[in-house]
Amino acid sequence: MASPSPLQYVLSLPLLLLSNLLQQHTRLYVEQDPTVSDWLQENAIPTRQRTVGYLRSLLPFLEWLPNYNAIWFLGDLIAGITVGAVVVPQGMAYAKIANLPPEFGLYSSFVGVLFYFAFATSKEYAPSSSLLSYKSSSL
Q1: Is residue 103's pLDDT more than 80?
Q2: C-alpha–C-alpha distance, residues 28 and 72, integer Å
Q3: Residue 137: its pLDDT value, please?
Q4: Distance between CA atoms of residues 29 and 63, nearest Å
Q5: What 3-state DSSP class applies to 106?
Q6: Alpha-carbon distance 9 to 134, whole Å?
Q7: Could you give the residue ranges of the DSSP H alpha helices within the chain?
Q8: pTM to 2 decimals?
Q9: Confidence category of residue 74, pLDDT binned at 50, 70, 90
Q10: Of 82, 104, 80, which Cα lies nearest the Cα of 92?
Q11: Nearest by Cα to 90 from 120, 119, 113
Q12: Which residues contact 96 (CB under 8 A, 6 or more apart)?
């Protein structure tokens, strides 16, 4: 029997090392297939924690209002008065343009901002009643 050539050793050495490495570090992992009832128990049945998280996501002011910084109140008050001084007459004017009573403009000025306070959060929000004139002109 002839002895193996040096080339055979060079080619077979990496394969031997790789096979030993795979045998030592390969672990068998078997995962059970998920069932519909497992998915429903994990995702569809509401827990108290998920319910509270969902309500907090619907009403963002519940998250930030308890941590509101009182130092910001004066600036927020001035900003609110300024925006109100612009939006109230603007809403009344748009209502008159749309041949509606001015009360509709007042409703559009305040109700939209109150809904926005409860359900949204953004410092870039600019309340406006221009949508009122668009909606009523299409009637």
Answers
A1: yes
A2: 59
A3: 47
A4: 42
A5: helix
A6: 84
A7: 6-25, 36-39, 48-58, 61-64, 73-97, 102-119, 130-137
A8: 0.47
A9: very high
A10: 104
A11: 113
A12: 102, 105
